[in-house]
Amino acid sequence: MGGYAETFVPGSILTTSAIVGILSLFWIIFTREATPLRKVPGPFWASISKLWIFQKQRGYQRPLVDIELHNKYGPIVRIAPNEVLISSPKAFRTVYGAGSNFRKGEWYIGASTCGWSGDDNLDFLTEQNIEKYRTQRRAVGPAYSEAAMKDLETQLDSILEKNIGIMKERAGQSVDLDLFFNMLSSDCYSMATFSKSKNLIEDDKDDGSIHAIHAAWRYMHIVGYFPLVHRALTAIANISAQQSTSLRHMINTLFPFMERENRGNKPAARNPFAFPITQVASRFEARNSSSIDPKAQEYPKDIAGKLFQLQAEKGILKDHWVRNMCMTNFGAGVETTAIVVGCLVDNIVSHPRCQEKVHAELDKATKEGRIGKIPKLRELKEELPYLNACLMESMRVHPVVGMPLVRTVPEGGVELEGKWLPAGTTVGINCWVLCRDKALYGEDADEWRPERWLEYSPERLKYLETYNVSFGTGARSCPGKYLAQAVYTKMIPMLFQDFLWSYTNPEAKKMLRCTFSTRYIELMMQWKLRG
Ligand code: HEM
């Protein structure tokens, strides 16, 4: 046999194989034995290669994977040669708490358009320069403040009233839960941002933006683990944008999610983001062509108008920052809000007697004149405690983000869960794990029990709020929190006031799909008119 190999396998292949074998052995010995992470438990293959986590990501079940890993290995688990998961509230405080200097992990590169966000860009999700980040957040902050949301009520009321009317006409229609709430949410965000609806519910179809956002996240949630691959693909896409149509066509076919970058920000007939791009462009045109000084101009009372106003008053905001923020409302707000609302409907329908209680509470509050047909922003929280408890419980048992919020251990390293982690280690907590922590929520933390939120004392609620990761946490928490809350707190009571929800096929198996945000796919539901 040996003679056979010598005859047919060239020496250079044998030499190369030997070198690869020796290097692999060195790598395994290094990652297993010569780094402080050797003491962190976890699957063997995860400790030597990122391919392990790559394989897991491809299954789209990341929240369940992470829960299982902690059940098996404990509060700290190594999931890649340089990455660990943590789970305890104490470790959470160290990494994300006040004054923490853990910056965002490299995974976020996969979500950026140019490696990391460029020098003059506004891209909150991926920004690494904290000073620049703070300046930009301060500059746009007033447009997204809780107080500012009152000005959006008129826009939200009108689109919700219109769409609820359409739903009444279509009672009995069976819809894909995820797509339906994405369309409803998209109509709301277009009204909140530009006082103009996309009318996706009326047209009963996606304008391409919902599909495009899902495709983008599908790409980003995997490529984030391989930042070099993303950089290379981005470079190719950018080159192709300036090169031949056939090369561009090839890239778009292979990587449809790259199309956005190929097109730059020009509105195009097929561009799924043509709506916000065109809307912002026409606002710029109106401002620039006006003979009135921008500071003295009157802007619409929507998010775009507020950003223009801030820009005119303070002068810090650049035109493309305003445009990026408007786009962010769609890229970051539509899908996430659809998940919050869709999962709430699913949870209420799937738990016996829950919908009955929600209806009874709504009927009582309406009869007593405590809520209107179109609820005011505060009414869900103040007048509908049970429905509000269901919302909190739904966001706890099904947080929108199902992947760890990764951060990088700063200079000097850190000790977490009794293990030493050197500077540069990637560390993260999965919201799904923290939200099921028994020390926080009790022994029944895995169960759906909305009543828990009505039983907690005010002190307990305040304490738990410090571990509420629904909108991220610390300095890098979600800038769109109040906007999203405004959209869904108005929408939710309206969905139950007139409708009784049910599954189209109660026997169908639910399929979870995590691509950073976590939704159910192909879950068909229907509503009928009450009473
Ligand atoms: C219900 C809806 C929403 C949910 C559940 C949600 C949730 C989150 C979470 C968990 C994070 C932290 C991510 C991380 O640390 O990696 C985050 C960050 C972010 N969100 Fe939201 N979000 C929602 C709506 C919005 C809206 C409407 C906007 C529009 C401005 C927005 C813009 C952002 C941005 C730009 C970041 C990155 C912030 C940073 O890295 O500093 N989100 N969001």
Automatic annotation (TrEMBL):
Record: residues binding heme: C478
Protein name stated in the entry: Cytochrome P450
Domain of life according to the entry: Eukaryota
First and last residue of the signal peptide: none
Keywords recorded for this protein, A-Z: Heme, Iron, Membrane, Metal-binding, Monooxygenase, Oxidoreductase, Transmembrane, Transmembrane helix
Transmembrane portions of the chain: 12-30
Family: Belongs to the cytochrome P450 family.
Gene Ontology MF term list: heme binding; iron ion binding; monooxygenase activity; oxidoreductase activity, acting on paired donors, with incorporation or reduction of molecular oxygen
Gene3D superfamilies membership: Cytochrome P450
SUPFAM superfamilies on file: Cytochrome P450
UniProt cofactor(s): heme
